[in-house]
Amino acid sequence: MKEKRLNNGIQMPAAGFGVFQVQDPEECTKAVLEAIETGYRLIDTAQSYGNEEAVGKAIAQTSVPREELFITTKVWITNYGYDKCKASVEESLKKLGVDYIDLVLLHQAYADYYGAYRALEDLYKEGKIRAIGVSNFFPDRLVDLCLNVEIIPSVNQVEVNPFMQQIEAQKWNEKYGIQMEAWAPFAEGRNNMFTNPILSEIAEEHQKSVAQVILRWLVQRNIVPLSKSVKKERMEQNIDIFDFELTKEDMKKIASLDEKTSSFFDHYDPAIIESLFKLH
């Protein structure tokens, strides 16, 4: 697996496996074990996913050494504020059954995320976290955070797919040396993603699937994609993206698909913010 060097010097795999919505514990543990067997080393979970313990069981059962795995979790907004955040990460450590977490992100840019971020900074200094970052931080909130914290985030995990390309956001992340990660690279198949004529044509030219084209497009944009599947054959396909390269013309065609609109929800919608606080 190729790797990316984060702004604090540690290496992170260039593609990862996510477990969002894999809530059945046995299915989640099995999926993570199969993902690791397939070659994935970056495993992405979150407190709000409710499956940290299931991921932890896979970590305990795999024959792959802990130091070869890159485990990510995220602190949910109801655990923000310094004390609550610190306690919640300690709880995540227990659920995952690990002595340290490779990357911890603040899941959303709401509530007392400054207090929470200070807790992550201290946990980082204590060696319980190898890197800290954020998720779903739009450029305005990201820059404000960067200008007012001691440790610049290493990662910002945001929605990136052919219909929501985050071109402008990427410029701001790169200005501060922050690695972008893409959640929902396939937009969960919305907008007929897998039958899109442009993506299908490019896939046919390269003898690859539309999913592989999308993941490769992200890699070539220097964005780390996180894909999810409970089917091993899909896992194998989704990690097989390092043996081909999209042309400049391919990249230009995909750029034309950008609608600059989320396939899921508007983070600036007050009703959405209310609903997020009811999630966990």
Automatic annotation (TrEMBL):
Q: Which residues form the active site?
A: 49
Q: Which Pfam families match?
A: Aldo_ket_red
| Keywords carried by this UniProt record | NADP, Oxidoreductase
Every NADP-dependent oxidoreductase domain range = 23-258
Q: Which InterPro entries match?
A: AKR, Aldo/ket_reductase_CS, NAD(P)_OxRdtase_dom_sf, NADP_OxRdtase_dom
Keyword RNA-binding belongs to the record: no
Which top-level group of life is the source organism from? Bacteria
The entry sums up its family as follows: Belongs to the aldo/keto reductase family.
The name of this protein is 2,5-diketo-D-gluconic acid reductase
